[in-house]
Hints:
The protein is an alpha+beta fold. It has eight helices and five strands. The strands form two sheets. The chain has a three-stranded antiparallel sheet with strand order 2-1-5, covered by helices on one side. The two termini are about 50 Å apart.
Amino acid sequence: xxxxxxxxxxxxxxxxxxxxxxxxxxxxxxxxxxxxxxxxxxxxxxxxxxxxxxxxxxxxxxxxxxxxxxxxxxxxxxxxxxxxxxxxxxxxxxxxxxxxxxxxxxxxxxxxxxxxxxxxxxxxxxxxxxxxxxxxxxxxxxxxxxxxxxxxxxxxxxxxxxxxxxxxxxxxxxxxxxxxxxxxxxxxxxxxxxxxxxxxxxxxxxxxxxxxxxxxxxxxxxxxxxxxxxxxxxxxxxxxxxxx
Length: 244
C-alpha cells in the first residue's frame, strides 16, 4: 500500500473532466449525489405525533409525542393525564420499539458510499493514467463497488422494514389503543396529527436507487478489468482464424 501511495504522489495530479462523458465516471458522480440524498433524508429527522384525550367530559387535551433519528422510540416520553376526579396529575408513557439499528446501518452505508465515491472520482478525474495502466485498480474498484451494491440492498431492505415499524409505533391510532386511560368508558381518546413521513419515504427510495446505480456500475467497471479484456482478445483471435 505504501508503494501505491508513493506512486500516486510521484505521478502528479492531472485534472481531466473528459471521463465524466463516459458511463464509468458519470455514474460515479450520480452515486455521489444520491448517497448524500439517502443519508441526509434519514439523519436529523424530527417528527411529532399526537392524540386528543378528554377526561370525564372535561375539556379535550392534545398530547404530543416527539421522536427523532435514530428512532430509539422507547426513550421518548409523553405525558398523559391520569383522568382522576379532582386531580390534575399526569403519567409518563413511552413510544414503543427501538429501530436504531436499521436506521444507523442505512446512514452508515450512505456515508461509506459517499467517501468511496469521492475518492474514486478524484482517481478518475486526476489519476486516470494510473487507473488504466494497472490491472489492480479496476479489480479493486469492481470488488468495492459490488460490496457497496450488496450493502445498499441489505441496508435499504432493513430500513424499509424499520420505517414500516416506526410508522406503526408512532401512529396516533396505535397510541390510543395502548393507553389504559383510553380504555375507560368515561374518557374519550381520538387520534390527532399524523407525523410527516415523506422525507423518510424518500430515503428508502434513494436507497434502492443507489442499489441500481452501484449494481449497474459494476458492468462498466468490469469492462476495465483484464477479465473482460482477455475475453475480448480471445474472441478476436477466434474470429480472425481462417480455415486452411
